[in-house]
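ok, trying the design again with the full structure, not the truncated one.
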């Protein structure tokens, strides 16, 4: 009896496999057979039908009707085949997007999170922008990056960087160690691609790494990426004004990586990480998109509503899809209020014995 029960699922799977193969064969036959049938009908009519051999007006009208019907049938068949291929391509793109830029949970360790991406390539659902937020024993670690270029050509590089980040954030106790892991993963990816394709790719990635401690302490490493915006009440300001390091892939990382202390993310405050496509978008008069102005209009909105407000304003400003990929990641501190020794001060390199920061007025 147990052998019979074990055999039933195997039989069911085998039957489903046979049905799928039958469907694929049928689809292949229809794809190749229908155009052949339509063509055979037209040739047979022209060669064998007596009406097709006549030169009268009625005969010509009848022949034109036959060939019009054949042509219409072929056009409809080709259109259906193209739509089917388009649906399959979109399904593949959706699966790739879920694997690369997987949906973030709405809350991560007391932080409310929302993220979205818009590709400038109309043929791709994903582009060269990347983001991720992961809760670790070292705090919530966040990455926002931008691969040189956009569209399908940048997906492989973004996948290599994101895959390395998702492992390194749990393994590396220091933020500098995470950045070095990303740099090595990028170099390995570019080297393997050059060996496979026989071409040397001049590619780089801008990266912003953030670490948000349990008390809201902010630490950052920036390699050529725009600084995120801190939204506190009605005030919108860059998280730091420090000069970033060069993007990954252009130069070797320095021996000492200056991790910056950026104060604390207090309860109710919001961080908005973005790629340069957001602020580089121009309108018909060449004016750049003002992201801080839009953020001031949505200071009391939820992170998800902030995304909607920014993307709507961006599309209106650019008059349609912008020319570069755009990614946004919004994090709001919804943890219970707790006292901190300092709140927010000018960003500076982290030391072994961190000193309390002073609150900006």
């Amino acid at each position: 009896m147990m052998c019979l029960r074990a055999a039933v699922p195997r039989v069911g799977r085998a039957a489903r496999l046979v049905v799928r193969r039958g469907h694929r064969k049928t689809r292949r036959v229809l794809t190749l057979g229908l155009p052949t049938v339509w063509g055979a009908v037209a040739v047979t009519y022209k060669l064998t039908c007596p009406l097709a051999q006549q030169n009268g007006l009625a005969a010509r009208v009848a022949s034109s009707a036959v060939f019009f019907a054949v042509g219409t049938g072929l056009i409809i068949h080709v259109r259906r085949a193209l739509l089917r291929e388009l649906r399959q391509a979109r399904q593949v793109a959706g699966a790739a997007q879920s694997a690369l830029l997987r949906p973030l949970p709405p809350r991560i360790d007391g932080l409310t999170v929302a993220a979205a991406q818009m590709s400038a390539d109309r043929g791709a659902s994903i582009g060269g922008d990347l983001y991720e937020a992961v809760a670790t024993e070292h705090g919530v670690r966040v990455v926002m990056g931008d691969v040189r270029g956009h569209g399908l050509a940048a997906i492989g590089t973004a996948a290599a960087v994101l895959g390395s980040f998702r492992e390194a954030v749990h393994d590396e106790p220091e933020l500098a160690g995470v950045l070095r892991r990303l740099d090595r993963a990028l170099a390995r990816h570019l080297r393997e691609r050059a060996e496979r394709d026989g071409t040397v790719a001049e590619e780089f990635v801008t990266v912003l790494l953030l670490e948000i401690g349990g008390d809201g302490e902010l630490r950052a490493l920036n390699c050529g990426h725009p600084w995120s915006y801190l939204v506190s009440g009605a005030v919108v300001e860059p998280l730091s004004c420090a000069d970033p390091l060069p993007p990954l892939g252009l130069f070797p990382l320095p021996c000492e990586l200056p991790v910056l202390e950026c104060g604390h993310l207090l309860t109710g405050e919001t961080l908005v990480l973005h790629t340069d496509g957001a602020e580089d978008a121009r309108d018909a008069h060449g004016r750049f998109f003002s992201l801080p102005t839009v953020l001031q209009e949505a200071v009391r909105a939820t992170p998800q509503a902030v995304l909607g407000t920014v993307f709507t304003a961006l599309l209106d400003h650019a008059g349609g899809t912008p020319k570069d990929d755009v990614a946004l990641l919004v994090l709001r501190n919804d943890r219970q209020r707790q006292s901190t020794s300092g709140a927010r001060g000018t960003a500076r390199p982290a030391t072994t014995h961190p000193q309390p920061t002073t609150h900006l007025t």
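Keeping the full-length input from now on. The helical segments are 2-48, 50-53, 57-100, 155-171, 175-197, 276-280, 291-297, 303-318.
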